[in-house]
Amino acid sequence: MAKSRTSFICQACGAVFPRWQGKCEACGEWNTLHEEAPTAGIGALAARGAKKGRIFALEGLSGESKPAPRVLSGLAELDRVTGGGFVPGSVLLIGGEPGIGKSTLLIQACAALARKGERVVYISGEEAAAQVRLRAERLGLSDAAVELAAETSVEDIIATLSAGRRPALVVIDSIQTMWTETADATAGTVTQVRGAAQALIRFAKLSGACVILVGHVTKDGQIAGPRVVEHMVDAVASFEGDGSHHFRILRNVKNRFGPTDEIGVFEMTGGGLTEVANPSALFLAGRDGSAAGAAVFAGMEGTRPVLVEIQALVAPSALGTPRRAVVGWDPSRLSMLVAVLETHGRVKLGQHDIYLNVAGGMKIAEPAADLAAAAALVSSLVGAVLPQNMVFFGEVGLSGAVRPVPHAGLRLKEASKLGFSRAVAPQGASDKSEKPAGMGLTAIRHIGEAIADIAALGRRSPPERKPS
Ligand code: TYD
Ligand code: MG
What we know:
Layout (H helix, E strand, L loop, with lengths): L6 E4 L5 E2 L15 E4 L5 H6 L28 H6 L9 E6 L5 H13 L5 E5 L4 H10 L7 E4 L4 H10 L5 E5 L16 H18 L2 E7 L18 E6 L6 E9 L7 E7 L2 E4 L3 H6 L9 E8 L2 E13 L7 E4 L3 H15 L6 E7 L11 H13 L7 E3 L2 E2 L5 E2 L4 H10 L4 E5 L13 E5 L2 H14 L8
Parallel strand pairs: 4-8, 4-9, 5-6, 5-7, 7-8, 13-17, 15-16, 17-20, 20-21
Antiparallel strand pairs: 1-2, 1-3, 9-10, 10-11, 11-12, 13-14, 14-16, 18-19
Helix pairs in contact: 5-6, 9-11
The protein binds thymidine-5'-diphosphate (TYD) and magnesium ion.
The site of thymidine-5'-diphosphate has 14 residues, from α3.
């Protein structure tokens, strides 16, 4: 029989190696291999002479299964991300950088649910119960009947939870601090995280309680350790935001029971997280419409339209290789757009530094932002101030063609609601029925048309910094 040997497991991706090495060949990370004791694999079970399998009944697809009612948390933005409430018996993993507000969000959700009379348990492996209580007090949640404990042993937690009334919601903050006796490794290692998650998932499925696991992410955005549990849980959401801005976005990454591209928007205030029902107003707040190089993009986040300002600065470069810096958008998308503008729009950007920024710290992944980014770039280059009441959306192809994007009607409606009355959009973007009353629509087919319009604006309104 083969001798059981310890193995080395990459803490970033979970790959297993027979001996230590500096770099993980699977994910390319350095210094992530940890030695862990062998676990009883299938081979070991077979060797022990596992008993013959039990025969179970198989079911058909048309069988009857009534959907359990979803559990609404009471925080509308959180319920939007879960696809209309927690599904009983499901497990949700919430990832985010340390300090982003995961514990704050979850204690607020716990309190809201407890106030509805449900049994809610909050297990903190990071903070003492007194610390959690202190935070709850500061947030004005002390009166909610949330059951609290500072524990890290998964077996103890499951025994405690199984003893009383079935909880509607259990929060485990965080999965990296949990440890299970079934795995022989230190807490926080891949083996422990996987083992602890497995046990908690089994508890959720058997009891029908909804379990939320908190996971910390590394600097490059991966849910460290818990990345290996992403495939085991029913839903994964990431809580994002940056230190210099107050708003936080809860973004759905995976959801077995609902849409996956939904976002919930919150604002971090002195009194905890408050929900932002109208994110566009938040992102456009403090906009200086009188400067060249700013274009408002009518975007979509999931099923929800969100307006954001795209700012560009195009300045003659003193360097041999001009600088290209992007915040909130894909740098390779910018390179592509610059090439299209040069080739098909006869806009000369080769000798210019280009800075592009999505205002408010928002991140845009939609190709529909191409047209707005192009408008901001050309506006900055020619010094033309774009009309304050104008929004842009449309995808720019490599041929310079401006292509239609989905949900034109929703984008236009949101723009109209926020007081915008002109839109530059792809030809055939929306039929007449979708266009809100009072919205002037300029339909374009090619990026050249947009550039010509903006250049004409620039000639009509020369920069105000003229010698007097
Ligand atoms: P926390 O929920 O502890 O973050 P995480 O669990 O993701 O590590 O939030 C910590 C930050 O939130 C901290 O920097 C302070 C800030 N905060 C507020 O601004 N207002 C509040 O009411 C609370 C509770 C926290
Ligand atoms: Mg925390």
